[in-house]
């Protein structure tokens, strides 16, 4: 049964994730480093959402929406925040045409599924999806297609085509992690490396 995150819980738990979750900490540092520092009050909104959507990134106002009625627990909250922060990072660093170029959207959805932990082995076991060859890539592709269909009124065939066209380049774009962070340990190493990289360039 889903645990409803009321407004105060949603805000406090999203803030907690920013302090302790290595995925979120790295992305916040990367956003700040790229000139897009995140303000909790300005850039996050806790709302009730339709259907089973857990969150979204509203590029028109540069705001992350957290669906307080669909987020189950702290781990789910952290994963949603991470997924949407990857979209926010892409919005900051690139000229993403979210609304008319489905290939741009597909690329960011591939990156978010790949880097956020959405397709971690543990999450896939919970979904009873495991044992397939190249399973991680299959999961990333499928979840990217599902995410596109959740926000765009297009056919599954069009979404699949867009994902397939960008998959190789976007799957191999690991910024700002520098690697696929398969779990929190990998994410901590990636955060450490990002901080060291930042210190290195600041001393040149």
TrEMBL record:
Molecular function per GO: metal ion binding; metalloendopeptidase activity
Pfam families cross-referenced by the UniProt entry: Peptidase_M76
GO cellular component term, pick one: mitochondrion
Keywords carried by this UniProt record: Hydrolase, Metal-binding, Metalloprotease, Protease
InterPro entries: Peptidase_M76_ATP23
EC number(s) stated in the UniProt entry for this protein: 3.4.24.-
Root EC class: hydrolase
GO term, biological process aspect, one: mitochondrial proton-transporting ATP synthase complex assembly
PANTHER family: MITOCHONDRIAL INNER MEMBRANE PROTEASE, MITOCHONDRIAL INNER MEMBRANE PROTEASE ATP23 HOMOLOG
Family of this protein: Belongs to the peptidase M76 family.
Protein name (Swiss-Prot/TrEMBL): Mitochondrial inner membrane protease ATP23
Species name: Tursiops truncatus (Atlantic bottle-nosed dolphin)
